[in-house]
Amino acid sequence: MASSTLSSHSFDRVRDWLRASPDPALTASPLRPPTPPRSPAIIPPLKRLRDASPCNMDNGNPPRSSSPSKRRRKEDDSLPGHSASCTSSVALSERTVLTATGSAKRTSSPSRHLTELRTARPSILLSPITMPPKPLPDDAMTRLGGLRRRLGSALKGGYIPGGLKDAIEQDPDFRLSVSMEPIEEEAFNHEDSRTLADFALVDTLQQVKRIFQAATLCTQFGRDENAWCFSVVWPLIGLALKLHGKGKWRLESVQSQNINPLYLSRIPDLSTPNKERHLFRKTDFCFSYSYHDPHFRALYNRLEEVNAMHVSHTTDNFTSRAVLFSGIEVKPENGDQKEAELQMGIWMAASLRKKMELARRAFSESPVSESEPESNYRVGHDSNETQNPSINVDDTSITAFLEPALAIIGNEHKIYYAYPSSAIGDISILGPDEKFMNLSTRSVQGIFKLIIFYATILDYGYRVELESGQESGGGTLGRLFGEGY
User: Fold this and answer.
1) Which among 410, 268, 247, 259 has a CA at the least distance from the CA of 331?
2) For 144-162, how does the pLDDT look when each residue is reduced to its tens digit (9 = 90+)?
3) Where is the stretch described as Disordered (predicted)?
């Protein structure tokens, strides 16, 4: 019977045969574990990913190689609460890698930022128009009611010249849109006797067509915010100014302009104890009382004579010297409405605080002059100063302002109302106003409706209805520099 065990000679022959095998898995001796390869070219994927990951810094191991890191966002561009993320990966094969996030990065949330503004110093409260945080001051309530009545009356009808009716309905560029949504008969002003022989009427129709076509392209191709700003919104409001502005207004692009920090809200700076930082966001457009209007130009000249040139909340060399009105933030189709409200809200709050400061000077015994100590009038203040004790928190003479503001999301135009809720610079913003939720550039009728809508807003900015039902010539300027200024 053959022996059940191999002789030493036979064992050596089997071992030599195994070592000569081309299969690398069989080249290691069965008597000891295989030795890992030393060549850097075949380092396992898992080890390479682990060495390159920033997570290995947690256990004191420096990364094998360094790479440029992303530029950190400026502090003013974000609010607290963000955290860095750290990832780890497992390689199942050369083509399959599973990656897990160690701690998820918190995304920027406009809703969270709006909530933080409620507790900022001074505060900014944005609420639905039917849910104000507290009763409105009498002046604000009067102005709000008057503006809403004006807007409602303007939109009832008669905002399309009657002489354009046939031209609109027969125009091949409008025919499909009008067939899907016919223009209401009451939208036409048949008392307007002009015909297409009037060049101004033909020009108006051509500009409306260009706006309609631009809005269509922006919608169909998902164009960005810049395209909406300057292909749709800018020409639309420009047309409203041309037809109804009476030469008293300028449309200003303020996208690149900074706000004076004196008029910004502040929150605690978590990186520095007992310090605060400003909350800054930019908006797209606003209006200014035009230097080209003789009446306003005379006012600006008088302000320069008494060294009181800086009458707005911006730091720009021009707009800081012009009285500004309203604020407009534009987002593309399906853009973030909360982000638009955040940007528009910060702009409007700073604008109203500057006007409150000017009104305080106007109602003081001293003349309006920048030679006076600024701390005697300032509503806003530097980050770490205490509030000016000379300001009477119940002083209604410097809070009698209410200004409309707009958030435009693609085709949709939404109106808000901003007003001071205290003499120390707290601002409340109500909106969007659901009474005017059908304002859109999706149709020819909608564009004409928006033209009269903006015309009514600007008329309000010049003539403010008083509680008695009478109107105050000069509107905002009358409040800032006195009646007749």
Assistant:
1) 410
2) 999 999 999 999 999 999 9
3) 23-90, 363-392
